[in-house]
UniProtKB/TrEMBL annotation:
Residue ranges constituting the ABC transmembrane type-1 domain according to the UniProt record: 21-209
Location in or out of the cell: Cell membrane
Protein name (database record): Amino acid ABC transporter permease
Segments crossing the lipid bilayer: 20-47, 59-80, 188-212
Organism expressing this protein natively: Cohnella suwonensis
Keyword Membrane listed: yes
Annotated family: Belongs to the binding-protein-dependent transport system permease family.
Keywords assigned: Amino-acid transport, Cell membrane, Membrane, Transmembrane, Transmembrane helix, Transport
Source organism, top-level taxon: Bacteria
Pfam families xrefs: BPD_transp_1 (PF00528)
Membrane topology, record value: Multi-pass membrane protein
Keyword Hydrolase assigned: no
NCBIfam families, alphabetized: HEQRo_perm_3TM (TIGR01726)
Length: 222
């Protein structure tokens, strides 16, 4: 590695890290929160007896899980303007990522709810609780603990998936790296650098995930 390459790394590191902290992480948090709300609602609807809403929820999950996220982002940002709907890169990114999290997360939440023994429902009913009360007070708290590990993995994956929004011109960390590549003509160097930053973010989140899981295990053991 020559002096020029070292200088490129030095000059690009803080702008890349800043883009990650200011844009990538907040985008991840916002879309995960919205996606989680959508996931819970979708899972509950799919477990209900409402025929039409259940069909709509199942169709939504089928479409999102069956098509690439990259294509979905293209449709939202580049396709919708042809029918008169123009969205900003940021709003397109939030919608696309939230829909993806909602679809995949709904399967996690649904499986977690189904994993709770039917005896829990029966016990709640014997205490005079309605189905909604049993769901809110007994089933969902238990399902939440079951959902934490897979949802944590989804969150970490979402951090990496945000790099896809660079194709709709949203300037997050990977897009910033592309801009540096266009100026320096050092793609291998800069893409490896941004990969290391993504790896650092994912590693920190993995440690936090393990901490949360250990805390939940201790709480459940009491």
């Amino acid at each position: 590695m020559d002096d020029r390459q070292i200088q490129i790394i030095t000059d690009s590191f803080w702008p890349l890290l800043k883009a990650g902290v200011i844009y990538t992480i907040p985008l991840t948090l916002i879309t995960f929160a919205l996606g989680l709300i959508l996931a819970i609602l979708t899972a509950l609807i799919r477990l209900s007896s409402w025929t039409i809403p259940k069909f709509i929820a199942s169709f939504y999950v089928w479409v999102i899980r069956g098509t690439p996220l990259l294509v979905q982002l293209f449709i939202i940002f580049y396709g919708l303007p042809s029918v008169g709907i123009t969205l900003s890169p940021y709003l397109s990114a939030v919608i696309g990522l939230s829909l993806s999290v909602g679809a995949y997360g709904s399967e996690i939440v649904r499986a977690a709810i189904l994993s709770i023994p039917k005896g829990q429902w029966e016990a709640a009913s014997s205490l005079g609780m309605s189905r909604m009360q049993a769901l809110r007070r007994i089933i969902l708290p238990q399902a939440a603990r079951v959902s934490v590990p897979p949802l944590g993995n989804s969150f970490i994956s979402l951090v990496k998936d945000t790099s896809l929004v660079s194709i709709i011109t949203f300037v997050e960390m990977f897009r910033k790296a592309q801009q540096f590549v266009a100026l320096t003509y050092e793609p291998l160097l800069l893409y490896c650098e941004v990969a290391i930053i993504y790896l650092a973010f994912s590693s920190v989140l993995s440690v936090l995930q393990n901490y949360v899981e250990n805390r939940l295990e201790r709480f459940s053991a009491r």
